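Minutes, project check-in
Item: structure for the 111-residue chain
Input as provided by the requester:
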Amino acid sequence: MSLFPFALTYSGWAALCFAMSRHARELLQREPTPLQRHLLRTAGWIALIVSLLMAAARAGWPIGTVEWFGMLTASAVSFVLVLTYYPRLAAGLGLGLPICAWMGHFLVSVR
């Protein structure tokens, strides 16, 4: 299992979650505009699809799909737990995890 697809699934869940009025109000103290909601939903689905494609490219479709479902489950559980107690941290991790995973992958591949 690779860290970057996991980070993308976490970010996808975060974007889909913050596209909902209730969670956006909790974090931002305001409702997202319809355009922001649409962009968050689109970004969330794109992140989930890209993570599936990355998992399938790395391990093949049969095993990659199983790994992806595992990543979906693990990232959803971790996101919900963090969102429950630290909503701002959940949002920050949604933005920061893919960047950190990409940088880590880049540093390991250069070495």
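Outcome recorded: The radius of gyration is 14 Å.
No further action items on this chain.
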